[in-house]
Design a protein that fits this description.
four-stranded antiparallel sheet; 12 strands; globular
Length: 228
């Protein structure tokens, strides 16, 4: 099996070298760049399995990179793990809202980072051949492709995972904690607000189909049993 390929976007040289060393030691291929502008150019030519993104880049910052990357109709979409020295909830929520799939605060443990990378990459392989379809929404898990009535739908890794959970279990109510466990794994530190923000973003992308995700006040969210 070919080694997974990771793009490191980090302008602090010592941190970039630390990440690169640990990726190499664990059998990953990687490429480094110190700017969001250059990263977008690289992504036009090469495909990566995952992106490690520093939030506080010089020039184009990590949030601007996320916004441009996630809204690009031509770039292959990959999971993004955001690296940030700012651990405030507002910064984390902003990163997730702009399209990051995961985050780690600096300073971080290289072992924990590698574990997060493995978990994120493994999530895309576990249900590789599965196709989920309901109310004109189709998810092809092997290719991480989504469609609404035959039209392509751009989703982040987290949005894709959440939508798959709902479509696969119509009528079942999921609490925010259950959604966190299924998308990120147990014991993961994501706030209820972060989940709500991602649900809002997912509904916006679903457009007229947004009603398929119902809010159960005081409990969580569910997929409507009715066809939309």
């Amino acid at each position: 099996m070919a080694a997974k390929k990771i793009l490191i976007i980090e302008d602090e040289r010592n941190i970039a070298e630390l990440i690169a060393f640990n990726l190499r030691k664990n059998g990953y291929e990687y490429r480094c760049t110190d700017s969001g502008e250059n990263a977008l150019k690289i992504l036009e030519r090469e495909a990566f399995d995952l992106i490690l993104l520093d939030l506080m880049l010089t020039g184009m910052d990590g949030l601007d990179f996320c916004r441009l990357y996630r809204t690009s109709p031509t770039l292959k979409q990959s999971p993004i793990i955001m690296l940030t020295a700012r651990g405030e909830e507002a910064d984390i929520v902003s990163g997730l809202e702009y399209g990051a799939d995961d985050y780690m605060t600096k300073p971080f443990s290289p072992r924990v980072l590698i574990a997060r990378i493995r978990a994120r990459l493994r999530r895309g392989e576990e249900d590789a051949d599965e196709v989920v379809s309901r109310s004109g929404i189709t998810l092809r898990c092997k290719f991480h492709e989504a469609e609404i009535d035959g039209n392509p739908l751009q989703l982040t890794s987290n949005e894709f995972s959440m939508l798959k959970i709902f479509l696969s279990n119509p009528g079942r109510v999921f609490s925010r904690d259950e959604i966190i466990d299924k998308v990120h794994g147990s014991g993961y530190a994501v706030t209820d607000r972060a989940i709500d923000v991602q649900i809002v973003g997912l509904r916006k992308k679903l457009g007229d189909k947004a009603r398929i995700i119902e809010t159960v006040r005081g409990v969580g969210y569910r997929c409507s049993r009715a066809e939309i």
